[in-house]
Each structure stands twice: as C-alpha cells, then as structure tokens.
Design goal:
mainly alpha
C-alpha cells in the first residue's frame, strides 16, 4: 500500500515534468545548488549573524544547538529511521522507472532509498527556524525560496519523487517550528524578555545590516554557481 501511494502515476507524471533538461549549463547549476559544500560560506554567514546579535555564550550556543536539532530531527530522522523502514526506492534506483529518469552527470543520489527527502527536510527546517528567529520579511522570504530551490533540484535530478519532497518539506516545517518553540522557551530562561521597536533591528533584535550581509552572501553564492556552470 505504501509503495502504491508513493509511486502513483501522478507522482511519476509530476517527476517527469520537472526531471532533467537538454541544458548542460542547467545541469551544472542544479548539481552545485544541491551540493552541501556549496553553501558553507552561507552557513558561516548565518553563524556570524548569530554571533553579532547575541550577547552571551549561552544565547549563542542555544541558537547553534537549535540549528543542529533542525538537522538532526529533520533529515536525520529520514536517513536514520524512515528510509530504512519504508525502503522506497529513489527514481534512479526504481527497477520499474530508473531507465526513464534523466540523470545529470551520473548523479543518482546518496543511497538507494528516497522517502522522504532529507535535503528538503533539512533546508526547510533551517529556513523556518531562522525565519522565526530573525523575523525579517525579506530574509524569511529568501530563506523559504532557498529551501524550495533545493527541493526543486531533487526533482530536476530525478533522485526523489514529488511525494518524497513534499513530505520532506512538510516535516521540515514542523521540525523548524517545534525547535523554535523549544528554543524560545529556553531563551527566556537565560535572557530578558525584550521587544525591539527600531528601524535598525527586527523585533527579535537582529540588526538589518547583518541580515543584509547574509542575503548578500546568498546572492554571491548563487552568482558563483552560475559563473562556475558557465565556464565548466
């Protein structure tokens, strides 16, 4: 029943729509987009923003611990528990479907099981948590778009069915929200309850200049991806 649900004709039809292209340039862009090391500088920028906008080590470690929990309970639950339990093949490993998948440069995903997408869960959990943490409108929008772009890349590469990605995004959003609620409860045990009303800070106390720095790093990373794909 699970197999029939996850690999329905509609699921495969949607995958066929998003999977692959005739563009080597786009293949390179998507492979870079979905590659974790591509975003190391962006993650460091997020960490720097946290350092700049929290006054004590307990506050900083609380944010770092919360971000780690987003990854642990987001993609970690998928990789450690759900994928081995459900054993739903990735499209690139599905005996009935793998010959129909457009594979980019031999990339077939890590491991043969794909339900649910750890990429989608991790990025959405991080996006939701930091959006609630920072409370900047543009920042929140760009974080969600970043997560959705990563989710789309998994369909383009054919390493997940749409249901894998949809459940990953939903689970990641739930994890990000729950982690933030726990973080908030713990935060007020080590910090005063403040509400910032300023054109310089968000209402949770994050400086807009530091937020702009993070968004600039994101933009430069995307520009680097495009340039690299152009010259390869």
């Amino acid at each position: 029943m699970i197999d029939l649900l996850l690999t329905s004709q509609a699921d495969r039809a949607i995958l066929a729509f998003f999977n692959g292209s005739d563009s080597l340039f786009l293949d390179h862009v998507v492979l870079a987009l979905t590659n974790g090391p591509t975003w190391i500088v962006f993650y460091l920028a997020l960490f720097y923003m946290v350092l700049r906008n929290n006054e004590t080590m307990p506050q900083i470690m609380l944010v770092v611990g919360a971000a780690a929990c987003c990854v642990l309970f987001g993609g970690g639950v998928s990789d450690i528990l759900v994928k081995p339990l459900v054993m739903q093949f990735r499209p690139t490993y599905d005996p009935q479907w793998k010959m129909m998948v457009d594979v980019a440069q031999g990339y077939t995903g890590s491991g043969q099981y794909g339900f649910f997408s750890a990429h989608a869960a991790n990025t959405m959990a991080i996006a939701v948590f930091f959006s609630l943490l920072v409370r900047g409108r543009l920042f929140s929008m760009m974080m969600i778009l970043w997560s959705l772009a990563n989710a789309w890349s998994r369909l383009y590469l054919g390493v997940h069915y749409p249901s894998d990605v949809a459940v990953g995004l939903l689970w990641g959003a739930v994890v990000g929200l729950l982690v933030y609620l726990v973080y908030r409860k713990c935060y007020f045990k080590v910090s005063p309850r403040l509400n910032y009303i300023s054109s310089q800070y968000t209402r949770t106390g994050y400086d807009y200049q530091d937020i702009d720095m993070v968004l600039t790093i994101m933009a430069f990373t995307l520009t680097y991806i495009v340039i690299q794909a152009t010259i390869v």
